[in-house]
Specification:
This protein is mostly beta strands. The chain contains two helices and 38 strands. The longest helix is centred in the middle third of the chain and has 7 residues. Bound molecules: 2,5-dideoxy-2,5-imino-D-mannitol.
Amino acid sequence: PVSILELSTGYHFRPPKNWINDPNAPLYYKGWYHLFYQYNPKGAVWGNIVWAHSVSRDLINWVALETAISPSIESDKYGCWSGSATILPDGTPAIMYTGISRPDINYEVQNMAFPKNSSDPLLREWVKPGHNPVIVPEGGINATQFRDPTTAWYADGHWRILVGALSGASRGVAYVYRSRDFRRWTRVRKPLHSAPTGMWECPDFYPVTVDGRQSGVDTSVVSSPRVKHVLKNSLDLRRYDYYTVGTYDRVRERYVPDNPAGDEHHLRYDYGNFYASKTFYDPAKRRRILWGWANESDTAVDDVAKGWAGIQAIPRKVWLDPSGRQLMQWPVEEVEALRGENPVGLKDRVVKRGEHVEVTGLQSAQADVEVSFELPSLEGAETLDPALANDAQKLCGVKGADVEGGVGPFGLWVLASSKLEERTAVFFRVFKAARNINSTKPVVLMCSDPTKASLNTNLYHPTFAGWVDTDIRKGKISLRSLIDRSVVESFGAGGRTCILSRVYPSLAIGKNAHLHVFNNGKADIKVSQLTAWEMKKPALMNGA
Ligand code: DQQ
């Protein structure tokens, strides 16, 4: 077996050494994509947080620049935590971020920084104006749970931002601050929105178009009847990012989710390891792009030994599904430039009950796989246990990849060792509609089951799962997986449900990693098309 220390990533953004977490202030400026991120310059565990900075022309090749923001003033002396960028009307970016201003507690205030030289497309140096901090926790705000300012939007003579907070013991809150001059900020008394979910970290609030097209709009497009709004919060307690789709009332400064139960029965960007994410509008390609952090799921001891921890997921384009009920996500098209020249595949291949088919002819430890399945019949689908109908993850924990079903589980085994002792399963499973659900539509579950991912038993290997809002009666469903040594990032049904897992095989490494299609359901399924590409390493891939 190979040591965990040799497992890295080939094309996912990661630091060559040390710890990274949240993506911060992604933006596009003068032909360059900028990514800042939370970074510990002194080690592979969280701490000593500064803003590292990398730039790219294509979202794939990255060059690390010098640290952009680090403790230097009273109001950020003990840490420069997460924040966002806003492109001002003159075209220059402004950053707002959280500063830790006391040594004894995480006393959180909001600061600003501006480029020292806006004619530098690389925005290498940032200066902090003397009037920092610009927002302090006043009026009963819990100063230790008050952080992560959003990108500002502009309407009716005012800029607005959100700051995430905790009210009382358990209420997640997004406070609105307004400013006429982007300098003096005052709080709107009532928050934009709140819910009994625990602390809201890294809120994100942005418009999406309702025309069913995949294009994005700038954050300040607030008043058109052609947009709805998305509010995303990162749940500190549960460590995942959830969102609702709804309406922004800019006169009352309130946001109302379309689904009244949305904050309770919420959607997630990703049902796996994906946190503290942030979007930005890319004017070059008129799209909205989502960045999210995926932490390691090995041990802290392993992280220290390997010298680094944390990656960023492949940036995803996000748009509103024509149904208006949820977002769609898809890896930015630029990642396809890494696909090798000789894809391999399967076509019209029936996979019978209990069968698995190996996809050969490629080195699949670092690969991009797209597959479409056809389901000849849904007759034999299992009945959904009403007790588990609300908990996809639990259901998948009970009905993992090896538990035979009616229709499914079927999908991919990725990062599989030659004798299959190790394998990560990414799959679907179809259920007849539960009797307590007012619909005849069958229910589709998507899972990532890493319980067999590694012979190394010293690892955290949760099964991840989410529902897929698709009409499977048409008999078709697709899956795409970006496999990258220790990452399996999967997109179900064209990006309706996404799951990122971190896995640490001990055998299925490099040339010893295999790829299979499997079917552990009673019903036959058909792979109408499978295409798998080896993925090249970007020429430049340098975190801090
Ligand atoms: N990470 C930052 C905070 C944020 C948290 C600190 C989310 O600003 O709330 O590194 O991961």
